């Protein structure tokens, strides 16, 4: 599958031109005209890399990047800044905020493609701690959460249910993932059960966190049990 990119830029002409060039280079590209729209798209599907303009109305690139880096789901997500600002002080501000690459306008689109390919290659080649189950880092914490979930399930009948405090619409696949998380299954086991990739399962779990306002599998399962979301 081609890498999924998110392009955020408030200039329609540049946005479409860059999108077309990136797609011709083999990438799948979603576009947003501002940071808030980009953030909303990221709640639906986590991209492999973000390309963002810096000078945008309401929420600028630095604020958008700060929002990304403060969210555990996006802390290691590669981000490239496109900007008309080329002064050294501006670039330093970008790097201090956590940007991975900084490309002043006007730029050669081939250089952008090279930067994107390099960042994706570096990200994919980073060694990850894994177990035989193929789970990603912090296995002790994940195992602890699974144990807590299984303890919750033993008390399932004693948990009083109430309507969710806000409207939650889950897709059929999100519901399937939630049900399996609520059974205490790990991502590798869920992927095998649903015949999909572990990466896709991780995306669905992140989306469930976002939709329910929870931050861990234990919180998610407790929320699901309390509000009758798990079947």
TrEMBL record:
Top-level division of the source organism's lineage: Bacteria
InterPro entries for the chain: CheY-like_superfamily (IPR011006), Sig_transdc_resp-reg_receiver (IPR001789), Tscrpt_reg_LuxR_C (IPR000792), WalR-like (IPR039420), WH-like_DNA-bd_sf (IPR036388)
Domain Response regulatory: 4-120
Keyword match Transcription regulation: yes
4-aspartylphosphate carried by residues: 53
SUPFAM superfamilies xrefs: CheY-like
Pfam family for this entry, one: GerE
Residues of the HTH luxR-type domain: 163-228
CDD domains (UniProt xref): LuxR_C_like, REC_Ycf29
PROSITE patterns in the record: HTH_LUXR_2 (PS50043), RESPONSE_REGULATORY (PS50110)
Keywords of this entry: DNA-binding, Phosphoprotein, Transcription, Transcription regulation
Protein name stated in the entry: Response regulator transcription factor
Organism: Nostoc parmelioides FACHB-3921
